[in-house]
Amino acid sequence: MSNTPADGTVTKLKVLTVNIHKGFTSFNRRFMLHELREAVRHVHADVVFLQEVLGTHARHAARHPDYPEAPHYEFLADSIWPQFAYGKNAAYPHGHHGNAVLSKFPIVHQENRDVSLPGPERRGLLHCALAIPGQKHQLHVFCVHLGLRESHRREQLRLLAEMINKEVPTGAPVVVAGDFNDWRRRAHDILEELAGLREVFVHATGHSAKTFPAKFPVLSLDRIYVRNASAHSPIVLPGSPWNKLSDHAPLAAVIDL
């Protein structure tokens, strides 16, 4: 998708974000990672933001004969996205899961910041800096999966804004995407005020996209925010095959650098 003139400069790229529900359909009825990989490929995104992606899970591997040996983010990246980063958020005796970024551009820096708050939920913010051909600044991307409690989300949004303001150089483009669990839509004002971020669907249509549950979306949980960049053609991908692959509908947008 990336727009590359004759001099090699990339001026626009497509991003995709999706909560993959650990490779299973709603209520863990079916293991769908192979079908999910094909669906992700057909979007032709340059950068993919994944939430609830498994690093390893011994029990699932024993139960499902088509379970890949590689971590799920590597399996999904395959030969399409040569660069990938994984942030382990939740660990348990039989495995772990977290956020991941797949990229067609070099990942020159990565960090997973633990933003877990007291309670059983483990959350992290995965920050990657991408080297984009011909661009003065690196592209800074943040893959986000926030908590279920509003008080936790509010603090995690503050930590996200602080992280962006401290670690991203002035003028560098920023894309923040993922599952915000923000059904009350409080994040828009907070992130605009604290970090100058704009949500691409709100900017384009006046309201955030409904993404959950995927078969009949009524809640706006998933988002794409930008700073020092613009976006166009934001779309929700709720129809076939996506509504059979995860409980969240994916979002995609073209980002102009």
Automatic annotation (TrEMBL):
Pfam families: Exo_endo_phos (PF03372). SUPFAM superfamilies: DNase I-like (SSF56219). Coiled coil: none annotated. Residues 17-248 form the Endonuclease/exonuclease/phosphatase domain. This is Endonuclease/exonuclease/phosphatase domain-containing protein. It comes from Pseudorhodoferax aquiterrae.
